[in-house]
Structures are given as C-alpha cells and as structure tokens.
C-alpha cells in the first residue's frame, strides 16, 4: 500500500465531520452526489470536505493524471484517501538502498577520543565552527506505513473502516441482529461500485427530512448525510456521530405520530448544539422559535424529549421536558463528578417556554414557574437527575441516551410525570365520532337534544367502543326494517283474508 499523503491526515482526535449537516427520514437513498450536495451557505452546523471527495482507499496509479504510455517517469504513487481520524502525522523517509549492494549503508563508526594532554600542560579552548548537518550516511527516521499506523484495539477489532471490506469480521457476524447484515452488504456493494469508478461519489447515504412531520426541514437542514464510517462506529460501539443521533430521534418521532399521535414527542435536535447557541446568534433565535412552535403543536404531549449536545458538540444528553409543570430533567450518563453548566441550553429552553406562555400555551394549576432573576416564566432545571451512569472514560454516552429515550417512549408509565390521555366518543351529537380534544367534543354535544358522549383513557378503548356502538346501531336499524316489513305483510294478509 502506498504511503499516506500528509494533507489527508486528520489528527483532530474526533470523529471525522467531513459530512456533518444533520437530520433523518424513514427512507435512505444514495443518489449521485457532488460538491453541491454539501451545501455550505447558511449551514452553521456542518462543514464541507476540506481535502477531496474521494474518501476511499485506492491503490495503483494516481487518478488525477494517468501516466503516458511508455514513460515510467510519469508514474505517480497512489494516493490513499481514508476517513480514519486516528492516524497521526507521517515523518521521515525510509532508508534508501544502494543499487550495487541493495543493502542499507552502515553508519560511520564514532571517532575515537583524542589523547589526553601531558601533565602540567593546559589544553587551550578551540573555537568551534558552525554545527554541520546530519551525515547523509545516517539512516533516515523510519516512515510509518499505512498498514502499521492504526494498530488494532486490545480486543483485536479494527479501529477504522476500510473500503471494500466487511464492517464486521466473519467471526462476529453471528452477533448481528435485525437489519445489520443487510446494511453491511449494501455498503459493501456500494463501495465495490465506487472503487471501480474513476471519479467516485462520496461514500455516504443521503437522507431527506420529511416535510409534514414538524421537523426542521428548511434549507440546508432538509438533507443530511450518514457516512459509511459512521455506520462502522455504530456497529463497533464507538462514539456516535451527531447525524446518527438525529436520524434515530426523527425516526422515533415518526413512529410516535403513526402509533400514538401527540401522546409524547421527540424534538428534532438539529439546532441543539451548544457551540451554535451563542447569545444573539441566528441559530439561537431559530432554536427558540422551533422549540416554542413544537411545544404548541403538541400541547397534549407529556413529556417532550430533547437531545442536545452540550459539550464540544460531541457528548449527548437527554432532557425530559414537561411544559405544563415547567420542569426540565437532565439525564446525563457521564460518570464525571464535574457538573455541566448547560448555560446556553438552559437559556434557549427558558426563552422557548416564555414564548409558549405568550402564545396560548397551557399550564396545570400552580404549574407555571416564575424565575426569580427575570420575573418571567421559565423551566425548573433539575440537572443532576439520577440515571444509569457509564463507566469512567467511556465514550458511549449517545448509546445511553438512546437507551433511556427508547425506554421512555415504549413505556410512558416509567416516567415520574406520566401522560394524562383522554379520548371522547360522541355517540349522539352533531357529528358522532372519536375526538382527542375536549373542545371539539364539546362543540358536537353542546345544546344538542339527546346528546350522549363518554371519555376513555386510551384511544384503542375509545375506538373499540365506537365500533361496537356502530355495530349495535346497524343491528337495530336492521331489526326495525324487518319489523316494519313484517307489519306491512301482516296487514296485507289481514285485508286479503277478510
């Protein structure tokens, strides 16, 4: 394998963010992408690729300038494009071998020490000339080869993904569950296609945010990318990329909208990155407006789930919000004893609930909290809420956050503030049916003679009662029709016989 080019080394000690713009959808596709796909105008959250879009490992000749036939001087060594972030700077050159011996020249023997001066004679100091450079005969520092730069982890697993190779080794495939293996096979197929192209596309999935689900879908947040290396980190339980967390959150909210509409809600974490929430910034203003509208849209939802990135945009935290009681509970799985400040995130949440209260948001009795410093509505922030902690030095906080989030969504009774759900069935009214809002139910039965309605705790029970009522009503109509027909037949027979 050819050596790495120093310009392609990423030593920021973080997950590569060459595709980091944000969001998620139920479907993923990979259309042809070019530099225009990584839009940078107005995108304060992502940054475009700084080197090249060929983020794959190639061997052979350089793809920039093909060599001329019969001219070996034109041959250039291959350039290795790798998304790995753990490789360090390459230093030095390998020792050159002489054509005659094909062996590395031996270093010169150190000069022998000068003889000691005679007794009683003082040695005069000698002026030293400028220090000469290192002898050309000395061997140069050893160059770190690409194969040796990233040693495997203590358990033998690779540290980065190499294009064209499976994400999981064969001895670990039996541990894969669900769609993991199909996803791995899809990535391998796409990489095999990219490696054959002269000008390959980005090795990433393109994800489009749905426009009718109350997500952040304005340009440039409507499309984001999941790199193949991010999937590798997911399979090997490494630190999850921001885009994967957003993908999971939005996909979960879409399931909630289909199965349990407006019971609980998971907000889109596109704006919730601490580094972008400075006072007076446009992102902060947009974040406040989005959270405010989200809480107003899901008035009946309790609780809300927020997934901010409070520390260097790398560490994820789960925040459970209950606007009706002005309560914000922070589930921080970090085992460090140093408490996070969450200053910017707390400010955004307080501004959002202030707008929520001014635009028709409702609170339970004595549930509205007035901040003592500003005398305005705000959240009561419980930053050290007890939760499962991760081991010291772990970088899997996003897995803990998503674990807590999934548990809360699947079983709302685990929450300290369970949701209060009531559905109303109007049996007799202006427009009979099932209603989620009391105001809508009231419109159908108010001043309606002979009205009949009832409330139920779950939608399933309400729909079942409504269907049973419709079935009984249909049977009653059938019985009345048959009774009327029998009466008519009896009357006709009576007149005929008489």
Automatic annotation (TrEMBL):
Enzyme class: hydrolase
Cofactor(s) needed for function: Mg(2+)
Transmembrane regions listed in the UniProt entry: 479-497
EC number(s) on file: 3.1.26.4
MF terms in GO: metal ion binding; RNA-DNA hybrid ribonuclease activity
Family annotation (Pfam families): Cauli_VI
Biased composition (Pro residues): 107-118
Domain Ribonuclease H1 N-terminal: 423-463
Residue ranges of coiled coil: none
Disordered, as annotated region: 58-172
Keywords: Endonuclease, Hydrolase, Magnesium, Membrane, Metal-binding, Nuclease, Transmembrane, Transmembrane helix
General function of this protein: Endonuclease that specifically degrades the RNA of RNA-DNA hybrids.
Stated family: Belongs to the RNase H family.
Protein's UniProt name: Ribonuclease H
Organism lineage: Eukaryota, Viridiplantae, Streptophyta, Embryophyta, Tracheophyta
């Amino acid at each position: 394998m050819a050596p790495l080019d120093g310009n392609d080394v990423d030593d920021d000690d973080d997950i590569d963010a060459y595709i980091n713009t944000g969001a998620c959808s139920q479907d993923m596709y990979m259309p042809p992408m070019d530099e225009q796909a990584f839009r940078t105008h107005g995108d304060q959250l992502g940054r475009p690729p700084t080197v090249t879009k060929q983020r794959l490992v190639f061997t052979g000749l350089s793809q920039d300038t093909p060599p001329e036939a019969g001219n070996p001087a034109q041959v250039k060594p291959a350039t290795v494009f790798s998304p790995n972030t753990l490789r360090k700077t390459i230093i030095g050159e390998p020792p050159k071998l002489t054509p005659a011996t094909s062996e590395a020249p031996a270093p010169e023997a150190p000069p022998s020490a000068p003889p000691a001066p005679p007794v009683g004679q003082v040695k005069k100091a000698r002026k030293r000339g400028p220090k000469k450079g290192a002898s050309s005969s000395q061997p140069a520092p050893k160059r770190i080869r690409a194969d040796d730069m990233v040693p495997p982890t203590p358990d033998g697993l690779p540290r980065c993904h190499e294009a064209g190779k499976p994400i999981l080794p064969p001895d670990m495939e039996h541990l894969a569950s669900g769609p993991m293996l199909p996803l791995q096979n899809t990535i391998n197929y796409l990489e095999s296609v990219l490696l054959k192209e002269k000008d390959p596309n980005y090795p990433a999935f393109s994800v489009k945010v749905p426009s009718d689900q109350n997500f952040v879908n304005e340009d440039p947040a409507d499309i984001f990318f999941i790199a193949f290396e991010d999937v590798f980190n997911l399979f090997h339980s490494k630190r999850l990329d921001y885009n994967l967390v957003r993908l999971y959150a939005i996909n979960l909210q879409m399931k909630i909208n289909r199965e349990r509409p407006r019971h609980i809600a998971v907000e889109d974490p596109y704006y919730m990155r601490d580094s972008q929430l400075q006072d007076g910034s446009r992102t902060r203003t947009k974040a406040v407006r989005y959270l405010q509208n989200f809480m107003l849209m899901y008035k009946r939802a309790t609780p809300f789930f927020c997934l901010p990135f409070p520390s260097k945009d790398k560490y994820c935290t789960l925040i459970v919000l209950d606007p009706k009681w002005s309560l914000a509970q922070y589930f921080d799985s970090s085992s460090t004893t140093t408490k996070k400040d969450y200053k910017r995130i707390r400010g955004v949440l307080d501004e959002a609930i202030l707008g929520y209260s001014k635009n028709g948001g409702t609170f339970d009795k004595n549930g509205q909290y007035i901040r003592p410093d500003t005398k305005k509505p705000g959240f009561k922030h419980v930053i050290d809420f007890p939760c499962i902690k991760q081991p010291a030095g772990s970088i899997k906080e996003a897995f803990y956050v998503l674990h807590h989030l999934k548990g809360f969504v699947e079983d709302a009774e685990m929450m300290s503030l369970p949701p209060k759900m009531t559905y109303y069935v109007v049996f007799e009214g202006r427009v009979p049916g099932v209603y989620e809002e009391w105001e809508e139910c009231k419109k159908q039965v108010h001043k309606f003679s002979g009205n009949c309605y009832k409330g139920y705790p779950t939608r399933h029970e309400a729909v079942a009662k409504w269907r049973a009522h419709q079935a009984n009503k249909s049977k009653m109509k059938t019985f009345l029709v048959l009774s009327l027909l029998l009466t008519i037949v009896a009357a006709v027979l009576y007149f005929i016989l008489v």
